[in-house]
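Still learning folds. Look over my entry:

…
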Amino acid sequence: MLTLAALWIVVSIVAIGVGSAVLRVITATACNRIADELFFAWWMGVAVLAWASFALANVTPLRDAMPWLTVASCVVAIWSLWHARNRWRALRPAAWILFVVLAVLLAERSVAVGNLEDTGGYHWSIIQWYESYGIPVGLGLFQWRLATHSAWLALTASLDIGILESRVATVANGLVFLGCLWFATVCALRWIRGCATFADRFIVAALAFLLQLIAKWEMRLSPSPDIPVLFLTVAVCWKMLSDAGEERASAPNIEAVAMLSIVAVTIKLNALPLALVCAALFWMRCDVTLRTRIIGTARLGVIALPLIVASWTSTGCLLFPVPLGCVDGPSAIGAAAVRQYAAIIGATARNDITFSLVVSLVALAYLWWMRRELPHRVVRGPVTIALAGIAFTAFVAPTTRFAIGYLTILPALGIAHAAGDTRFTAGASPRTLSTFRASVTLVLAIAIAVPLYKEFIYSSLRTRHFDSWAERKRGDTAIDAPNLQWWLIPNRIAYDGRYETARAVDFGYAVSPQMTCWNHPQPCASNPPLSALPDIRLRDPARGLAGGFVRTR
C-alpha cells in the first residue's frame, strides 16, 4: 500500500515537471487557474513518459534503458519544476494534502491484482517482451496478440524492475484513476461554491460517471490500456472547453491537445477518432501559418512513429490489427491473418452500447435545443469527437470498454449546461443552490466509494471468509502470491496454472491450456491457433529471442 502510494506521488511529481517542460517548449498558454494547469501538465507528463518508454522498447530492452530514462526524466522534471516553482507554490496546501490522502486510500484498495483475462492472456506477456527483449522482428508470428502494442504497457514494463518485478500491475491505471479522482474533487468543490466554469461542470459529470464505472471493473486492477484512453478522451474535451472559455484556444494549445491525442493512439487504437479530430482542428485554425502547420504535423508524426515502427517490425502492417498497409514477407503475419484477427475482435464485441447510445442521442437533442446558449466555437470540438468516436466504435467493436469514453461526452455536455446558471436554476437562492450541489456531489462520491469499499468485483470473493487481513488483501489466490507485507508492497503475480511444452523449429516454448500465461517466462503461447506456430524459427539464433522470428514456409 505504502509503496503504491509513494510510486503514484513520485511519478506524478516527475510527470508534472516533464509535462510542464513540454508545454513550455511548444509555448502553450498557461491556464488561469493553477489546478487546471497542474492537471493538464500531469496528463502531458504521464503521456510523455509512456511514449518515451514505448519509443525505447523499439530499439532496446527496457530493462537496459530504464536507468537512462529515469535519469533523463528526473533531470527534465527538476529543471522544469525549479523554473515554475513560484507558480506551483501558489496552489493551496490543501490541494496537495488531498492528493496524498486520496493516494493512500486508493492504494489500500489496489494491492491485489485483478483476474483480468486480457492481462493474463497477453498484456503481461507483452510487458515481459518489452522488458527483456524489446520488440523483436516478427513477434506477431509467435502470437498475433503480442503485436497489439501499447505505450501504456511499455510504461508498466519500465517500472517492472528490482523488488517491484511482477508487482506493478496496478500502478499505471491506479495512477490515472487517482489523478482524475483528485481533479474531479477539486472541480466539484468549485461547483459547490458557485465558481465553476462550464468546463469544470463538464469534467465533474464525465469523470464522476467514468470513475464509478471503472471502480466496478477488474481492469482498474490491471495494466489494461483501455482505462487511460477513456480518461484521456474526456480530459482532451475538458481542455478544449477550458481554453475556449478563457479565450486561450491558441495554436500551441490546440497542438498540445493534438499531441496528447496522438499519444492516446499509441496507447490504444480506439483513440484514432480522437486524434484525427484534434489534428483536423489544428489544421483548420485560421491564425496558423503554413509553416506552423507543417512543423506541428511533423511533431504529431514523430509521436505516432513508435507505434508504426512497432507494428511494422512485428507484423509487417502499418497499424495492426487494421488490415491496411500489410505486406507479405518472412517475418510478416500476412493480410489474411490480420483480417481474421480483426474479425475476431468484431465478433467478440458485446454489443452493449444501445442504452448509452440512446442517452447520447437525447443529450445531443438537448444541446441542439439549447444551441443559442452554447456558442458553436465552445462545443464544436467535443461534439465532433463524440460523434466520430461513437461512429468508429459502433462500426469496429460496439462494446462499452471501447466506446464509453465517447458516449460520455454528449451527456456530460448536457449536464454541464443544465447545472450552470440557466433557466433551471433561476429564482433559487445561493444557499439553496449550494445545498443542492453539495447533495449531488455527495451522491456522486458515494457512487464512486461503494465499489471501492466492496473491493472485490466478484461476489465469490466478497462472500469468502478470510482468516486474516493479509489473506483478504491477497485477493484471488490463483493470481496473487501470499503477501504478509501488503501494507508496504503490492502483491506479486504468481499464477499457479498448469503449462505444457511445445517446440517450434529451433526453440521450445510453453503453452497454457487455460489460454493465460501471466508471468510465466517467455516464450509462452496463450493461444497457439492465433499464430504461425509451430512453423517458425529464430531469425538470428545467435541473438536468440531478441533476434525475432521468421517463417519456415
